[in-house]
Amino acid sequence: MKKQTAGRDNLGKFAPKFAELNDDVLFGEVWSREEQMSARDRSLITCAALMAQGLYPQLKAHMSMAKTNGVTKEEMVELITHLAFYCGWPKAWSAFDLAKDIYGE
Predict the structure, then answer these.
(1) How far apart are CA 69 and CA 81, in angstroms?
(2) Residues 73-100, buried b or exposed e (16+ Cβ, 10 A)?
(3) What whole-number distance in Å separates Cα of residue 24 and Cα of residue 3?
(4) Which pLDDT tens digits describe the chain residue by residue (105 residues)?
(5) What are the Carboxymuconolactone decarboxylase-like domain coordinates in residue numbering (predicted)?
(6) Which residues, other chains included, contact 24 with Cβ-Cβ below 8 Å and sequence gap of 6+?
(7) What gap in Å lies between CA 52 and CA 91, rounded to an integer?
(8) Which domains does the chain have, with CATH numbers?
(9) Is 54 left (phi over 0), alpha (psi -120 to 50) or beta?
(10) CA 3 to CA 14: how far, in whole Å?
Protein backbone atom coordinates (compact mmCIF):
# COMPACT_ATOMS: atom_id res chain seq x y z
CA MET A 1 0.00 0.00 0.00
CA LYS A 2 1.15 3.51 -0.84
CA LYS A 3 2.42 5.56 2.12
CA GLN A 4 -0.33 7.88 3.31
CA THR A 5 0.53 11.53 3.92
CA ALA A 6 -2.95 13.11 3.92
CA GLY A 7 -2.80 13.78 7.65
CA ARG A 8 0.49 15.62 7.50
CA ASP A 9 -0.41 17.33 4.23
CA ASN A 10 -3.69 18.71 5.60
CA LEU A 11 -3.20 18.96 9.36
CA GLY A 12 0.52 18.60 9.97
CA LYS A 13 1.04 22.10 11.38
CA PHE A 14 -2.41 22.55 12.91
CA ALA A 15 -2.85 19.15 14.60
CA PRO A 16 0.49 17.33 14.31
CA LYS A 17 -0.34 14.44 16.67
CA PHE A 18 -3.62 13.69 14.88
CA ALA A 19 -1.78 13.84 11.54
CA GLU A 20 0.85 11.42 12.86
CA LEU A 21 -1.80 8.98 14.14
CA ASN A 22 -3.69 9.17 10.85
CA ASP A 23 -0.67 8.55 8.64
CA ASP A 24 1.46 6.26 10.80
CA VAL A 25 -1.03 4.28 12.87
CA LEU A 26 -4.30 4.12 10.91
CA PHE A 27 -2.78 3.87 7.45
CA GLY A 28 0.76 2.82 8.32
CA GLU A 29 -0.10 0.02 10.76
CA VAL A 30 -3.77 -0.91 10.43
CA TRP A 31 -4.29 -0.61 6.66
CA SER A 32 -0.95 -2.31 5.98
CA ARG A 33 -2.03 -5.58 7.68
CA GLU A 34 -2.74 -7.18 4.30
CA GLU A 35 -2.05 -10.70 5.56
CA GLN A 36 -5.11 -10.35 7.80
CA MET A 37 -7.33 -8.51 5.28
CA SER A 38 -6.70 -7.08 1.83
CA ALA A 39 -6.73 -3.37 1.14
CA ARG A 40 -9.59 -4.05 -1.28
CA ASP A 41 -11.73 -5.58 1.46
CA ARG A 42 -10.79 -2.82 3.91
CA SER A 43 -11.89 -0.30 1.28
CA LEU A 44 -15.29 -1.97 0.88
CA ILE A 45 -15.83 -2.02 4.65
CA THR A 46 -14.68 1.56 5.08
CA CYS A 47 -16.93 2.83 2.27
CA ALA A 48 -19.87 1.00 3.84
CA ALA A 49 -19.20 2.54 7.25
CA LEU A 50 -18.80 6.05 5.86
CA MET A 51 -21.96 5.78 3.76
CA ALA A 52 -23.89 4.55 6.79
CA GLN A 53 -22.82 7.63 8.71
CA GLY A 54 -23.41 10.01 5.81
CA LEU A 55 -19.80 11.22 5.84
CA TYR A 56 -19.60 12.10 2.17
CA PRO A 57 -16.31 14.05 2.00
CA GLN A 58 -14.53 11.10 3.60
CA LEU A 59 -16.56 8.63 1.51
CA LYS A 60 -15.42 10.38 -1.66
CA ALA A 61 -11.77 10.03 -0.65
CA HIS A 62 -12.18 6.39 0.35
CA MET A 63 -14.22 5.55 -2.74
CA SER A 64 -11.34 6.83 -4.84
CA MET A 65 -8.95 4.74 -2.74
CA ALA A 66 -11.27 1.75 -3.20
CA LYS A 67 -11.02 2.11 -6.97
CA THR A 68 -7.23 2.17 -6.67
CA ASN A 69 -7.43 -0.91 -4.42
CA GLY A 70 -9.31 -2.87 -7.08
CA VAL A 71 -12.97 -2.33 -6.18
CA THR A 72 -14.86 -2.28 -9.47
CA LYS A 73 -17.68 0.05 -10.44
CA GLU A 74 -20.06 -2.91 -10.38
CA GLU A 75 -19.01 -3.82 -6.84
CA MET A 76 -19.38 -0.23 -5.62
CA VAL A 77 -22.83 0.01 -7.23
CA GLU A 78 -23.83 -3.23 -5.52
CA LEU A 79 -22.49 -2.02 -2.16
CA ILE A 80 -24.52 1.19 -2.40
CA THR A 81 -27.65 -0.61 -3.61
CA HIS A 82 -27.45 -3.14 -0.77
CA LEU A 83 -26.84 -0.48 1.86
CA ALA A 84 -29.72 1.69 0.63
CA PHE A 85 -32.08 -0.62 2.51
CA TYR A 86 -30.04 -0.48 5.73
CA CYS A 87 -28.71 3.09 5.71
CA GLY A 88 -31.38 5.01 3.87
CA TRP A 89 -32.43 5.87 0.37
CA PRO A 90 -31.17 9.50 0.47
CA LYS A 91 -27.72 8.33 1.55
CA ALA A 92 -27.65 5.94 -1.39
CA TRP A 93 -28.53 8.75 -3.80
CA SER A 94 -25.69 10.85 -2.40
CA ALA A 95 -23.26 7.93 -2.57
CA PHE A 96 -24.24 7.23 -6.19
CA ASP A 97 -23.42 10.85 -7.08
CA LEU A 98 -19.93 10.30 -5.69
CA ALA A 99 -19.54 6.95 -7.41
CA LYS A 100 -20.52 8.46 -10.77
CA ASP A 101 -17.82 11.11 -10.34
CA ILE A 102 -15.17 8.57 -9.38
CA TYR A 103 -16.05 5.64 -11.63
CA GLY A 104 -17.65 7.54 -14.50
CA GLU A 105 -21.11 7.12 -15.95
Answers:
(1) 20
(2) eebbeebbeebbeebeeebbebbeebbe
(3) 9
(4) 667 788 899 999 999 999 999 999 999 999 999 999 999 999 999 999 999 999 999 999 999 999 999 999 999 999 999 999 999 999 999 999 999 999 997
(5) 16-101
(6) none
(7) 8
(8) 1-32 (no CATH), 38-103 (1.20.1290.10)
(9) left
(10) 21
Contact 14, 37 (CB under 8 A): no
Where does residue 104 fall: left (phi above 0), alpha (psi -120 to 50 degrees), or beta otherwise? left
Indicate the helix (H) or strand (E) that contains 82.
Answer: helix 73-87
What DSSP designation does 30 have? I
CB atoms within 10 A of CB 29: 10
Distance spanning both ends of the chain, measured CA to CA: 27
3-class DSSP state of 66: helix
User: Which pTM does this prediction carry?
Assistant: 0.90
